[in-house]
Design a protein that fits this description.
Layout lengths: L1 H23 L11 E14 L4 E15 L6 E17 L7 E17 L5 E18 L6 H4 L6 E16 L2 E12 L15 E14 L135 E4 H4 L9 H16 L5 E6 L6 H21 L7 E5 L12 H7 L1 E6 L3
Parallel strand pairs: 10-11
Antiparallel strand pairs: 1-2, 1-8, 2-3, 3-4, 4-5, 5-6, 6-7, 7-8, 9-12, 10-12
Length: 460
């Protein structure tokens, strides 16, 4: 009895230390069987190995109660208590009596280690000890001689081991298959005292078990508190495996508060989960090609101010909103009169692509020469004039291609002016590629407007 008391104290200390360690842990994701209590019922066929030479098959039944500690890995430890009852027997023509059968009743406990394989199969091992009551008898159910003479105690410590598999059938319910053994601390199961090696038996188990989850779930979202990273989720909100409200578009705003639940990945959003629209023009920043549009200005689908006559001057600045297509305009969107001298008062000269450049080409069309003639005359009259020549393209093609093409278009204008006797040092060539479109790139007309060269005073 002293051995049994020592064993129970050891189990208690081990359990206390394990639980204390787990309380200090902060697991991210636990083993599915963490903090569960498992009730099991098994039946076994027994094979006795005693001083009787021939094995005699018998049976044993067992009920167990197991607690599995919290675990953040596929492996999990547990402590198991069990009671079992059954028989072990043997047979030998050289013994008197020739057949014996001993009843066995165990109360025991031990430790289990199980390994999760895809949360469906759980191989396990068990090792422990029991307080065993046994009663050797013959085939007529009479106590054997030494048993009847009280030559030994009919109770002892026995040592128990087992290995097997749990197969998960449904939530919490498992089929158990295993093999095990029990070794006597003495040698009296067959009523032959102190004859040789200790008696033992082997058994093959099959049974069922059911796991009860005893973990606390404070917010009732179905995720236990020891896993729940969002422990105060409002009632009725769908959560992920960590207990946090689902955020389908991963924008940091959970679905139940997200007014724009399908925001593309990486887009900045406001508190309502909608893409930020800095200039409040109705086009979110990630789509807005003109993100600083003044308040109340009407914009197109790209977020740029509308330019109804496609002259490069948006409607809200255009003082001549119905300029015919292809007509050169000033900064106010009004047609430039050809007879007006181009002097230092020149603010902006635009060679639109629909009349001055072909798509994908840098060479000037003949219309451009007439537009550039006043500029040539003015620069010859005033040698202090300097101009910046910026080339633009539509959005067709790669960024590198468009940047090269815009440089070639600007250079084509400069080359023509140089051919008319103007010093090349009076110009600054600036390639802009497809930046700063003045019209939509979705239509041929809009793309033609974007293919342009803008000539503005350089101030040097």
């Amino acid at each position: 009895m002293k051995k049994m008391t020592t064993y129970i104290v050891f189990i208690f200390l081990f359990t206390s230390l394990s639980l204390a360690q787990e309380e200090r842990a902060t697991p991210i994701k636990l083993n599915p069987y963490s903090s569960t209590v498992v009730l099991g019922v098994d039946a076994a066929v027994t094979f006795g190995r005693t001083d009787y030479s021939n094995i005699r098959l018998d049976y044993l039944g067992r009920a167990s109660l197991e607690y599995l500690f919290p675990s953040t890995s596929n492996g999990i430890f547990g402590i198991t208590g069990f009671v079992s009852g059954g028989y072990v027997g043997g047979q030998s023509d050289q013994r008197i009596p020739s057949v014996f059968r001993t009843s066995l009743f165990n109360i025991g406990a031990g430790f289990t280690y199980a390994l999760s394989i895809k949360d469906v199969v759980y191989p396990y091992i068990f090792a422990g000890a029991s307080y065993l009551f046994f009663d050797p008898r013959d085939e007529n159910n009479k106590r054997l001689p030494n048993n009847a003479a009280n030559a030994y105690k009919r109770e002892e410590i026995a040592y128990v081991g087992e290995a097997g598999l749990h197969f998960l059938i449904s939530d919490g319910l498992s089929l158990n298959l295993g093999v095990g053994g029990e070794v006597s601390s003495h040698d009296n199961w067959d009523d032959i005292v102190a004859h040789g090696d200790n008696d033992y038996l082997l058994d093959i188990f099959a049974g069922m078990s059911y796991a009860f989850d005893i973990r606390k779930d404070s917010d009732g979202d179905g995720v236990p508190d020891d896993v729940d990273q969002c422990p105060n989720t409002p009632s009725g909100i769908a959560v992920d495996e960590f207990g946090c409200p689902i955020d389908s578009d991963h924008d940091g705003v959970p679905d139940y508060r997200d007014a724009c639940p399908n925001t593309p990945a990486g887009v900045k959003v406001n508190n309502a989960g909608c893409p930020i629209d800095s200039d409040h023009d109705g086009v979110p920043d990630y789509l807005d090609k003109c993100p600083n549009t003044p308040a109340s200005v009407r914009v197109d689908s790209a977020g740029c101010p509308l330019d109804s006559d496609h002259d490069g001057v948006p409607d809200y600045l255009d003082k001549c909103p119905n300029t015919p297509a292809g007509v050169q305009v000033d900064k106010d969107g009004c047609p430039i009169k050809k007879e007006v001298k181009v002097e230092t008062k020149i603010q902006r000269l635009v060679l639109n692509g629909n009349t001055n450049f072909e798509s994908g080409k840098a060479s000037l069309l003949s219309n451009a020469y007439e537009l550039l003639a006043p500029l040539v005359k003015s620069m010859k009259e005033d040698t202090t004039l300097r101009f910046k020549v910026a080339g633009y393209t539509d959005a067709i093609g790669s960024d590198r291609y468009n940047m090269d093409l815009s440089r070639e278009r600007a250079q084509a204008v400069v080359d023509y002016l140089v051919s008319q006797g103007i010093d090349a040092n009076r110009f600054e060539v600036v390639p802009m590629g497809k930046q700063n479109p003045v019209a939509t790139n979705k239509t041929p007309e809009g793309r033609a407007m974007n293919r342009r060269v803008e000539i503005t005073p350089n101030g040097k």
